[in-house]
Amino acid sequence: MSSRDKKLIVAGGLTGAAVIAWRTLFPWLQDDIKLIRAVIPGGRETLSDFENGRYIIDKFEEKANTQPNQTFIIFEDKVYTYGFVNSMANRVANVAATWNLKLGDTCLQKLGLVASFINYHLRDEPLSHSITASDGKALIVGQDDEFLEAVEEIRHTIEDIPTFVLGKQQSELPTGYKSMDSLMEQALPVDLCKPVRNGMNLLSTMCYIFTSGTTGLPKPAIVSQSKAIAAGKFMRTIDLNKNDVVYTTLPLYHSAATLIGLFGVIDAGAIMVLRRKFSTHHFFEDCRKHGVTVIQYIGEMCRYLLRLPPDPLDGTHKIRAAFGNGLRPDIWKEFQTRFKIPHIGEFFAATEGIGSLLNIFDKPGVIGRLSPVLRRILRSAIPIEIVRYDPINDKPIRDKNGRCVKSKRGEEGLIIGLIPPTKKDFYRGTKEMNEKKIIRNAFIEGDAYFSFGDLVYIDNQYYVYFRDRVGDTFRWKGENVSTMEVAHTLTEIDFIQDANVYGVKIPGSDGRAGMAAILLKDHKEVTSEMLKTIYERCKHSLPSYARPLFLRFMKEFTVTQTMKHKKVELREEGFDPQKVTDPLYYLDELQNSYIPLNLNTYQRVLESKL
């Protein structure tokens, strides 16, 4: 054997030993490499789209031209091709072209206009506020009598906004409304000239998606064209392609359903199966019927599916991946094993946030990774830090120099994202609304970070885990619930002096359920009529997920020095009658009221589905 061969053998042995040593000492490096390989192709495509000004609407029109007969949407067993949807969108756009709207007005994307996604559960002031806050220039009401009734109730507050109704002829509509069907019948299904979108750029607003926050009423989060393009690449990390069929039961006013689901499907030229409302009993039946290969989820949805009785067909489907967020570690493996889901991809992001995290490692409970390697290689994609947080004062802890303190591994902290100079606002509205989400001079003078409002921690191998929401907003049934919005609804009732709303944990459920501590006027005693009134007001004015499940009637409130309600002790006491001496009640849909909660009924409440 030559000396050269010996040297090669020694070198090969050393290299192999080095690789084994690295894998032994730093096993998490393999996941770093896996993540980098998963995100770089989509990242390159995103940069290419940015450079070429290839927006979501352009991608959709391209697919309509290159694969017009390819199925795009399946809804209620009806199949809509890319070509058909494009022709219908053209009809709408040609109608809207006669409304004298200008680029950037809130209405429609085909014309370079901004779309505003209104939560169809909203009623009364939240609905009126959402329409006016987005500066809507036209309102299109969906094909449902319930939607028209909701708009009719607040019509006096939006009289200046022309309103068009789907599913009705002009003769069937009240005065002041126009039939969208009649107008579309007269419009041509032809493409508009692209120059109508001239002036649109990456920083242009594409749409508003409403989020609930501590300011009370829904806030229109600004989604730019660049963010829409980037969000459409999320599912490329699970290799989404044109042969995939994506099943989404989340409402399309959700950023997960639209930005990640719908835009991801358009980007890949795939198929999307929609359902009007999530159904546990029909979920996998739909997946089998339509050959679904990818499902979108939120954690609570998975918990509902696990409550189904075991079925021999549980694992009979073509699903290769589930993609979503909020799947808690206590049910992760059970869900994946029982329903035979080969791969689960978890992401962490916010509609208006800066940066995101991904768990493509099938590691239960993890929302992403923040290792030194990833921070260096993917810095622009993961501009995220985790800082120590003071829950009492609801703000980051700062050192003697006034700078934020980065959390150590294993230490809970607030997750924040570096705001680029090009980012002006997160919400359409006042400066104060935007400023509340910004942490200034965090690490150096002049920097600015977006606060996600979430507490997380990093373990010793740099995996990131979600802990809880901060402040007043909490999550229930996959929705952010604004405590101020609920409190405002309650205090409009004439016998209620004040209301303190917060979220409480229920064993076996994700998020926090709504609970309201109530102070009655003139020290009145609770009556069955009062409870009935509270139930009816909440049902009429609040979406189902925001209605308090528990009521606590107090004789007096404790407040902070700045006159804010104290919530920490109330959250800890929850609705346990062994800890709470005040009268407690729980929501009973069968009796259409709130029912006394005591030691006898407490266990039954815990075991119920609420």
Secondary structure blueprint with pairings:
Blueprint: H1 3-25, H2 29-52, H3 56-66, E1 71-75, E2 78-81, H4 82-96, E3 115-117, H5 124-133, E4 139-141, H6 145-153, E5 163-165, E6 177-179, H7 180-186, E7 205-211, E8 219-224, H8 225-231, E9 245-248, H9 255-268, E10 271-274, H10 280-290, E11 294-298, H11 299-306, E12 321-325, H12 329-338, E13 343-348, E14 357-359, E15 366-369, H13 372-377, E16 384-387, E17 389-390, E18 395-396, E19 413-418, H14 431-435, E20 438-440, E21 448-458, E22 463-469, E23 474-476, E24 479-481, H15 483-491, E25 496-504, E26 513-520, H16 528-541, E27 550-554, H17 568-573, E28 584-588, E29 593-596, H18 599-607
Parallel strand pairs: 1-10, 3-7, 4-5, 5-6, 9-10, 9-11, 11-12, 12-13, 26-27
Antiparallel strand pairs: 1-2, 7-8, 13-14, 15-22, 16-19, 17-18, 19-21, 20-21, 21-22, 23-24, 25-26, 27-28, 28-29
Helix pairs in contact: 3-4, 4-7, 11-12
